[in-house]
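Side project, low priority. Logging it here so it doesn't get lost.
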Amino acid sequence: MFIITGLGNPGLKYNRTRHNVGFDVIDLLVAQQNVTMKDNRAKGLVGKCTIGGAKAVLLKPMTYMNASGSAVRAVVDFYKADPASDLIVISDDVSLPAGMLRIRKKGSAGGHNGLKDIIAKCGTEEFTRIRIGVGEKPENKDMVKHVLGKPNRWDRKRLEGAYEKVIDALNLIVAGEIDKAMNLYNTKIEK
């Protein structure tokens, strides 16, 4: 059972912000597969679906970004999942241009507080992550305001295109073809 986690912050205030791209991907999967998301004791919304022929649990932590690890750990424990083989986390990345993807089998948090909390709570850096570029913050802008801000129309179009690619990559990853997914999707975006 794969645990596919999209990171973000709950509430309308954060809807469609740069920090919520993980939630946006989960919402797209929910709409495409007509999944019902339910509250669970893990402080998250969960739903079950099939991706690439594999059973998966979709998770949107409702703990706010910086405390995502407690919701992820609870779901991983409940399903007796191994983070190294079963956990896939989708998050934003300010070091990548808007719409660019970076898929990794493992790694550090790279300054992302949501990933940092997941690593701390799960006790490992070994889990698959899909990072979606949201663009660097402008020089004179605060980082918090940048990630909690909404992208312009052009960047929104790039992000929405990236969400479809994330779903295609997920199909490959659950089929055991993460290297193929990295080769296909860890590329520069077209200008």
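Brief comment: The mean pLDDT is 94.
Revisit when time allows.
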